[in-house]
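Notebook, p. 212. Picked up where the previous page left off. The plan for this session was modest: take the two constructs that came back from the sequencing core last week, fold each one, and keep the raw output in the notebook itself so nobody has to go hunting through shared drives later. Recording the first one now, exactly as returned: residue sequence, then the structure token string.
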Amino acid sequence: MPSDKDRNQRLLTRLNQRINAALEPHLPEQRLFLKSDTETRFIRLRPLTQAITICVASLALGWMIFATALILLDSISAGSSREQTLRQQALYEDRLNALSVDRDLRVEEAASAQMQFNAALGQVSLMQARLLASEDSRHELEIGIDVIQNTLRRTIKERDEARNSAALASAELENQTGTERTETGRIRDTELTLDLITSTLDNTARQRDLALGAADRAAARVEDISKQKRELEARNDRIFTQLEEALTVSVEPLEKMFNQAGLSPDDLLKSVREGYSGQGGPLTPIVLSTAGQAPFPEESRANAILEGLDKMNLYRIAAFKAPFDMPVKDSFRWTSGFGNRQDPKGWGTRMHEGTDLAGAYGTAIYATADGVVEFAGWSNGYGRLIKIKHAYGIETRYGHLSQIRVDVGQRVSRGDRIGDMGNSGRSTGTHLHYEIRLGGRAVNPMTFIKAANNVF
């Protein structure tokens, strides 16, 4: 009796025959002859074998086409990504060039404002000298007029006295009778009296003419001085107007910068005056009026200009004590701003209390204002961190540094190099984390950076 193995073998054989018979019309049996020197052999390729070979070859060809398509798509995607990166890089470079040009324009404006400031000081000095000279001339003229008036009064008084004497002498001669004098003596006395009166009148007339000539010359001199004074006042008015316009152009951008940064200009000026009372206090006002008299208009305008110059100087000092500078001066790009954002480590949404500037490893980091280093070392999250305490309750922080170049307690000035850009702490790449805190509360650093674009 046949075994199970034989039965299975026969079933497989019948199935193979049926499959070959079904495939025979489409894939007839093929023979592959292999001939050698001594014998000839052949390999029979049944329809099923051909079908299996064709299926395997088709699968291999399909896999090759699929793999090639994947490689081509990946290459095209990589090329598109590179082009997009190049376009973004070009946009960033254009933006950096525009920022550089704008910064150069602000520097030129600041230099122009400084030149106007120096020119204004020179004009104020020249104006003060001219005003003093004009005051001296006016004082001399008043003295000359007083002398002439006194001379005229004295001459008129002597003339009146001579007329009265002549009248008394004439009356006495007419009334004298029966005296010891002879008629000849009386005639001689009368002649002498008349000669004396005539001589006195002639002297008085000459003195009067001299006094009138001096008065005419003094009046002409007064007119000349009045004309010069009017010309000087007009010239001073033009100078004052130019100085006032220069002050307006120079001070308004500074006030706008502080207001946009959320700092009170009045509080800043008060703080600077208290800290610089011996070096940056108010300028000495011009004083030309005498005691008990109201000040001249020119004096008031000059004092107002001096106060404006002092105010601009105080603003300049305050600007260096507030963080209105850039911490990175080489090429960089903005990667993350102030506010809520997705955590780069995948820990949900978190508050980002600063702004990130990405650049090359080791890029120089600069202090954005005058201050004192409060912390310089390692801090969790920040990595290598520098904290600088500034005036007006402002603090700046510089995180993820590769190197720290300052010590705690060290006083730094705006523009001093304090460290190098790195990737320390909780960071995904080389960048600077820059913070500004006002009264302990984090504020957007871009507020100060954008405000400074109006001036620097």
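Okay, moving on. Second construct, recorded in the same format:
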Amino acid sequence: MRRALWLAAVFFLPLSAQQDWIVMFNGKNLDGWKASERPENWTVEDGSIVGRGERSHLFYMKEQCEDCEFIAEVNINDGGNSGMYFRAEFGPGWPKGYEAQVNSTHKDWRKTGSLYGIVDIKEQLVPPNTWFTQHIIAKGNHIVIKVNGKTTVDFVDEKNTYRKGYLALQQHDPGSVVRYRNLRMRHLR
């Protein structure tokens, strides 16, 4: 009997925990996503969302994030710059919200894994043109960012600056080409 309970815990609990994740991208088109400006800068290629060209932000419009996790596999070109926004307001220009930076070699010294302008990482954690995972956890005013499973940010925002908003991807500038795949989010209770 104990063995049966142990097997159930090992095999069924992880499956039920995985069911909480919302798949944000179907690998085929941008259903559920909306660009705040310059929608032509976002395409789908080889099962990835690709951003290139002038500044644009692509918002996931089906859900908002209050307390949530947001995870994606990301690939940024040499000299490229991007970001994963959370709790962001939809609109043109630079979104009001938190940004988890995506930058391996761009001239901006804030690198991948930074909570942009709040907790800035100066070291290059991943080389350009390499797939990596960035994972954001936002619960109340506590924010954690992980890159390939390594915690880069563990921050409590005493000001509780942004409480609720959309998740979004950034296309920073004409020299940047960014690819996102396996985008998922889940609400935390």
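Notes on construct two before I forget. Helices lie at 2-18.
Flagging for discussion at group meeting.
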